[in-house]
Amino acid sequence: MSHTVIITGASRGIGRECAKQFAKAGYNVAAVYNKSEKEAQSLKEEIGCEIFKCDCSVHSEVCSAVSEINRVFGGAEVLINNAGISEQALFSDITEAMWDNMFNVNVKSVYSFTHAALPYMIHEKYGRIINISSMWGQVGASCEVHYSAAKAAVIGFTKALAKEVGLSGITVNCIAPGVIDTDMNSHLDEETMSYLKEETPMNRLGSPADIARTALFLADKSSDFITGQIIGVNGGFII
């Protein structure tokens, strides 16, 4: 019987590549999106997944989406909390609304999806929860205090929950990507991207496939003694 994976923010970037890799590996894919409906529909046509519209920052919408996913697939053994936003601003310019939005999308969504999906995993005595943070959640980034703080919260969430659900056969791990060539970095100019590439010991930018392959490993049964870990996929940018 094929396992089912829920992937948030699945219509673009890292989430989309995860959906493609997991579908190729034989998983049933529940791809969650919010605004990018055109991209979500094209993903469905490309890999044959099921798509679910949901604002990940709204708890009631998350609960409804997971209920529908459970109805369609009978439950999900793997959850990839990938949905997120980034934003650059001086700390003095970060408004309360900007701060709340950053935490609602990047942290509350992790709480909501995990809270909704966990009962099935506990019942099955098996589960894989994979959270996508950032290397800036590990070391902090200037002009991204709210983003760095939110991604650091995801790391703390991962470590704490791993200790709580291990006896239920559930692992909880976190991937902390480095500089990945996705739309999220499209606001950076060519000079900045070139600098970031030069600062990376592997002398290249990361790709969504680098993250997706790591997620696929963490979802596999062969990784069942790995939990509470922060896996840096950053080409050596931070060590």
Structural topology:
Layout: E1 4-7, H1 13-24, E2 28-33, H2 37-47, E3 50-53, H3 59-73, E4 78-81, H4 96-124, E5 127-132, H5 135-139, H6 145-165, E6 170-177, H7 190-199, H8 208-219, E7 230-233
Parallel strand pairs: 1-2, 1-4, 2-3, 4-5, 5-6, 6-7
Walk me through the structure.
By secondary structure, the chain is an alpha/beta fold. The protein has a single domain, classed as NAD(P)-binding Rossmann-like Domain (Rossmann fold), CATH 3.40.50. It contains eight helices and seven strands; from the N terminus they run βαβαβαβαβααβααβ. It has a seven-stranded parallel sheet, with helices on both faces. Strand 2, helix 2 and strand 3 (50-53) form a beta-alpha-beta unit. The protein is globular, with a radius of gyration of 17 Å. 44% of the residues are buried.
List keywords for this structure.
alpha/beta; 8 helices; 7-stranded parallel sheet; globular; Rossmann fold; 48% helix; 239 residues
Summarize the structure.
With 239 residues, the protein is an alpha/beta fold.
Give me the CATH superfamily: NAD(P)-binding Rossmann-like Domain
- Alpha-carbon Rg, integer: 17 Å
Discrete helix count: 8
Order of strands, widest sheet: 3-2-1-4-5-6-7
Q: Between the first and last Cα atoms, what is the distance in angstroms?
A: 39 Å
Number of domains: 1
Low-confidence stretches: none
Helix content: 40-55%
Provide the CATH topology. Rossmann fold
Strand content: 15-25%
DSSP strand tally: 7
What is the arithmetic mean of pLDDT? 95
Write down the overall geometry: globular
- How would you characterize the largest beta sheet? 7 strands, parallel
Helix and strand composition category: alpha/beta
CATH architecture descriptor text: 3-Layer(aba) Sandwich
Top CATH class: Alpha Beta
